[in-house]
Amino acid sequence: MFARIPARAVARAIPSRTLAATSVKAFATSAVSKDISATSKKDRIKVNFPGALDSHFSQKLEIRERMEPIDTFRVMDTDGKVLDPSLEPDVTEEFAIKIYKDMLTLNNVDLILYEAQRQGRISFYMTNAGEEAYIGSAAALDPEDEIFGQYREAGTLLYRGFTLDQFMNQCYSNDLDLGKGRQMPVHFGCKALHFQTISSPLATQLPQASGAAYAIKRSGRKNCVMCYFGEGAASEGDFHAALNIAATTSCPVIFFCRNNGFAISTPANEQYKGDGIASRGVGYGMHTIRVDGNDVWAVYKATQEARKIAVEQHKPVLIEAMTYRVGHHSTSDDSSAYRSKKEVEDWKRHDNPIVRMRKWLENKGWWDETKESSHKSFARSQVLKSFAAAEKRKKPPVSEMFNDVYDKLTPNLIEQKKELEELIKKYPDHYDTSNYAPEK
Ligand SMILES: Cc1ncc(C[n+]2csc(CCOP(=O)(O)OP(=O)(O)O)c2C)c(N)n1
Ligand SMILES: [Mg+2]
Known about the structure:
single chain, alpha/beta, Rossmann fold, 3 domains, six-stranded parallel sheet, three-stranded mixed sheet, 11 strands, 42% helix, globular, disordered N terminus, binds thiamine diphosphate, binds magnesium ion, DH_E1, potassium, oxidoreductase, transit peptide
């Protein structure tokens, strides 16, 4: 039975004397209807309040704390064996090897830049170790889908063709850095590759992603937005605003949560009480997938399906990729203060996304020890070459500090710039500009 106006439904269901001076809510908990609560949903009264369209009246006071936990989709086991033959990835050798090589290269970039920070050669770094399988998500996108990242997704840029020189120039803030030296290391951005510049304040990118997706929808482009974030960022208000606006305005955006178990030192079980982040997607009325984030092919397949929903139906999708942050949070962190080394080693050994992918490739006969060591040494030499070249370059010209705040320099900026030039001239010992590129 269906009641557009609740009072009418009430009138049909119970004797009129019970209606006197009662609200619909009072009816729902009244003593009349033991028999109604005992009946199945299809015989019960469907109620259509403006705020909840598919509820049924019930005389059983239900206080719900949990829903059934959402399953985690996987394709391969930890030995790289595909568990259901119908899920065997339908991909070429070249495509699979490109993904794997990018995972290995990313690992090399991480190792070298992490050490460089430890030696004081760059100011900061964040590694991707343990989470490399997210490259599978980049592989499922169209190159013109817009990416909004958090900071631990450099592999998506690598997949799109960001060069090792570009990575190193950014981390060194030199004169070739696309961001003109104005950002901390790892805050990459690349217009040509449709990768929006990273922002340090957590969750900034989420409402921006919803807005960009709305713009894409209006433009008629057959693209979507991919928005990466960590489970820690999902505690920010902006996460909720972003999901709700995307759901209510039907935006083609994929929210990709890397749930790596930690927000710096705070473990996931102290961050939230619900069923991960995925349960929140359902809460916002959004298509939601939970996936094994250490399984490249599961991540690839989940993103392919999410992209179809986003682009063809103009609907947002939330993907929660379950993984583990193997490295420290950043070079400013020492994770041995809040988790055991053994726990980290166990993850590395037993559920390593790179090893799983390598085993899958080996099972196909597409990879072996010779290829592994040859790519590893090639990647290492290329990374070191770019690293050395970037380190030698000067910082961007001093005047770049004033550019791009506005389209043209405003009178106060012109004044400040002049003042700085005079100071540099007057006190050359205090303002050594020899490490800055000459003004153009
Ligand atoms: C608004 C805001 N609050 C706090 C921070 C400090 N902070 C930087 S990263 C981080 C943890 C984020 O964890 P998560 O989103 O899970 O990403 P992960 O580092 O695990 O990849 C925090 C608290 C920040 N950058 N911005
Ligand atoms: Mg995290």
